[in-house]
Structures are given as C-alpha cells and as structure tokens.
Amino acid sequence: MGVAQNPQSLQPALEKKGWQKDWPALAAVLTVLVVAAAFWLRFTPPGFWGKLQAIGYAVCHQIPQRSFHVGGHSSPLCARCTGMYLGAFLALVFQLRQGRKAKFPPLAVMISLGLFLVAFGVDGINSFLHFFPDGPSLYTPTNLLRLLTGLGVGVGIGLILYPIFNQTVWRDWRAEAVVPRYRDFLLLLALAGLLALGLLSGQPVILYPAFILSGISVPLIFTIIYTMVALLLMRRDNKITDWRELLLPASIGLLLALLQIGLTDWVRLGLTGTWGAIIP
C-alpha cells in the first residue's frame, strides 16, 4: 500500500515549481537582453569610460564646467545628477537593513524632503538662467550647490522608492516606517554630507569609484521602477514571497531600462550629431 503524503510536505515543491515555470519566458527575455546589450555596446563610444559616459548621456547634459573631473576623465553625470543618483543609491542601501518594511517616513521627514525638492528646483532654474549673460538670476551658481541640492532630492527619491517597491512586490510587506525616527533621517543626511565631502576632495581614490557608482545607479534606478511596472502588468504585484520569483520581472525591468537608455542615446545623438555635452 502506498503511504499517504502530508499535504504540507508537498508545499515547498509546489512553490518551487511556481517560479520554475518562468524559466522559458526568462530565457527569452535574457536572450533579447543580451542582443540589446550587444547592440548598445557596439554603437556607443569605445572603452569603459566611453560606456559610462554613454549611460550618463541618456539622462544628463554632461556640461564639463558643471561636472567633476579626475585624471583626465569627466564624471558621467553633472554635479547635480551625480548628487541625485548617488543620493538615491545611498538611501536605498541605507534602508536595506529594514527588510520588507514599507511605510513612508514620518511627516517631519516628508516635509524636509519637500523643502529639498524646492531647493533643487530653485537652484536648477537659477543655474539655467546663467546660460544667458543678461538674464536675471538670484545668485552665482556653483557645483557645490548643484551637488547638495542633487543629494537632497536623491535621498528623497530613495526614501520614497524603497517603500513603494516593497508595497508593490511583497505579499508579506510590513506596515512599519522604513525610517521611523527623525534621527535616522539625520544619520542618512550625515552620510550624504560625508559623500559630498568626498566628491569635493578631488581625491582619485574617492572620485573614481563615485563616478562608476553614479553611472551604475542610473540603470539600477530605472530597473527598480520597470520591475514594478512589469509586476503590475503581469498581475503579480503583492504576490512575491521569494526573491527567485523576481527573476523574470527584474529581467524585464533591466531590459526596459537598457532600451530606454539606448533609445535616448540614439535620439540625442541623432539630434545633436555628437556624443559631447549639450551646451546652449
């Protein structure tokens, strides 16, 4: 006689088969991803720094006077965008220790983030007005102000994106604040301040990794956003319990991020005829 099996003992196997069902679709997506990456690598400027600049080219004007420089290399993003993407990356990493918590920061933190956004907008407009010698302006813009306002908005992006991601992805997300106290927020700002000091130090040992990390942060942020979009379109939002179940939607997210960067590169190159900076 056969031995009756405990239904609970079958549950892990059933769950395993659930994410394994994605393998054919995952293989197809990865194939398209490899082809798209090959095309992008083939038609963008040569060398590691050329590829890094091509990533920044999709999201930033890359004006030399408004960027950082080290060892003959210009940062792939201007000072403001460098701060924004590094700030977002820093905030995301800072929150990883909170696991699947998904409640937005307290009201005081949100108000502070709103003020950072206002400062970002004011400094951006003022900086733009300086392209016109006889135009009005509030003050003389500097890369320090661009960096600081970029960091402020970047921290805000990370603090908002992380709980939204958790709410969209996980079935068992927790309704607890990711940054529960204002002192946690101040600690994050202190880390952002140290990052700013490092960027302003001019030390190659700091700037080279910062340049690379800022460039990598662009497709990372896009991939996170497009992964959530993929989950919504696949009707799998709030249904993920295991990281392996994210392989397919995350691969789709990475593919869409690469396609956006590649398409933007292609359009900008077609309009300007150069891989150089946009200088009004």
What does this structure look like?
The chain has 280 residues and is mainly α. The chain has one domain. It has nine helices and four strands. The protein has helices at residues 7-20, 23-43, 48-57, 79-95, 107-129, 143-169, 182-201, 204-233, 247-272, and strands at residues 67-70, 73-78, 101-103, 174-177. The strands form two sheets. The protein has a two-stranded antiparallel ribbon. A two-stranded parallel sheet has the order 3-4. Helix 2 (23-43) runs parallel beside helix 9 (247-272) and helix 5 (107-129) packs across helix 6 (143-169). The longest helix has 30 residues, at 204-233. The model has no long low-confidence stretch (mean pLDDT 91).
